[in-house]
Amino acid sequence: MAKKDELVERCKIGDTLAYKELYQRYSRAMYNTCLRILGNITEAEDVLQESFIEAFKNLASFEYRTSFGGWIKQICVNRSINQLKKRKIDWIDIDSTQIYNQPEEHSIDENAIQLKVESVKKAIMQLPDGYRTVLNLYLLEGYDHEEIAGILNVAESTTRSQYIRAKQKLLQILNKEHEQAGKIY
Prior knowledge:
This protein is an all-alpha fold. The chain is 64% helix and 0% strand. The chain is built from eight helices and no strands. The protein has helices at 6-12, 16-38, 41-57, 68-85, 117-125, 129-140, 145-152, 156-180. Helix 2 (16-38) packs across helix 4 (68-85).
């Protein structure tokens, strides 16, 4: 049980300044979460606003089972996933593919690749929605495959295959970018 947050308690009694402060405290981090999942600035801004509206409407039922930050993050992740579902993502189940038996076109030594953060961020944004979503939830948001499967309402093997494919695709994008720049790692 998380300890009570003064700002949340002030919001619960209708203090409008507290709402503003609470939004300012969490909005940037939650926007970044939405953007990493959605890969679209406009959609991320919309989902962020909708998430805070939902949180503020339901604040009276907030019971400190987690921190407010954890609670709003879960709302943002769920709303981002729902927005992605509207795009009709093509989830690929690992059980129905031969991904482990396929030789890689180009052998890539992951340990030899040292990349700048901006290059990686740019490459992640180029990934298809399903790949980017699972990669972000797993690597950046810290969810495990079981949790991701529950959030996305897909099989755990599907999240694992999406993650594997996302890493492969990410490495392809990064290698191509560096080859074009004359910097082969």
